[in-house]
Amino acid sequence: MDKSVFSLTYEVEGMPRDLHELPKVRDSWSFLYVERCRVDQDKKAIVIEDARGRVPVPCANLSLLMLGPGTTVTHAAVRALADNGCLAVWSGEHGVRFYAQGTGETRSALNLLHQARLWASPRTRLDVVFRMYQMRFSEQFEPGMTLQQVRGAEGVRVRRAYQDASARYGVTWEGRNYDRRNWRSSDHVNRALSTANSCLYGVCHAAIVAVGYSPALGFIHTGKMLSFVYDVADLYKTEISIPVAFGEAAQGGRELDTRVRRACRDAFTSAKLMSRIVEDIQSLLGIPAEETDDYASDQAAPGGLWSPDGIVAGGVNFSLTGDASHGRDDLGKRPG
Prior knowledge:
Distance between the termini: 67 Å
Shape: flat
CATH architecture of the largest domain: Up-down Bundle
Radius of gyration: 23 Å
CATH topology of the largest domain: Four Helix Bundle (Hemerythrin (Met), subunit A)
Structural class: alpha/beta
Mean pLDDT: 79
Strand content: 5-15%
CATH class of the largest domain: Mainly Alpha
Number of helices: 10
Order of helices and strands: EEEEEEHEEHHHHHHHHHEE
Low-confidence stretches: 1-28, 291-297, 324-336
Number of strands: 10
């Protein structure tokens, strides 16, 4: 375990009394990747242990903990992560493969319901798709451009970003080429790109889940459980992933994956990425800022009940309120 990953010290005095006391997602640290170690509870936070010692981690300020191979996690540590709103992700070596995830920070479904409404309508979904593509360009699209034309322009933009990075860092670029089944067969820059994109996906995934969106309901991408993660991550690849990958590949292959992860961590901090992800999703989906952090202080409360006329209170026995429909019980039979 590399202790240089932890650049700050933090003392956790106690668990938050409710979710309003947790740091907002936009103010959190981005991610931490660990492997071949034990993750345990430490007071009300967590501690990372290996043969070289123990390092406490302030998980209340952390958005994403990536658990690589050889990691052992205690039940108490997982509970501390969940209570502090830190997403735990189980990943492959170097964070390249995604296996499973824990729970996010919000207990409200407002953002997910809004996302689903936009996704379910072809008209509103297309509007979001165009806004997502437009966010990547410095100039406005010409009126009347088709989706296919916009995708063509996006392809040109990405190809130019690779070529510019190749020239800037003096790294030969022969195209995106890698084999998921043989990680070491790729050249340095393709390995670096895969590692950088994996870190970016993890951070975007953590932000998406933390504020209550579905990673699966993508607008541009579709058919995968992480489609929306790919949508959001694509907003930042030419700004972050590509320069980081080419810059580190130019330094050779020694500890390349580790260097890329550290460079990503620094780039995410410099770009204030966690804050931007939340704000950009709000803008793309047209969600007011005040709705994003709508946490329910009582996590165990069942919430409201749907009705064609609006939401009614949950946790109520309607047979005792005089509002039961036609005097029927929950099974549709008349009482008695």
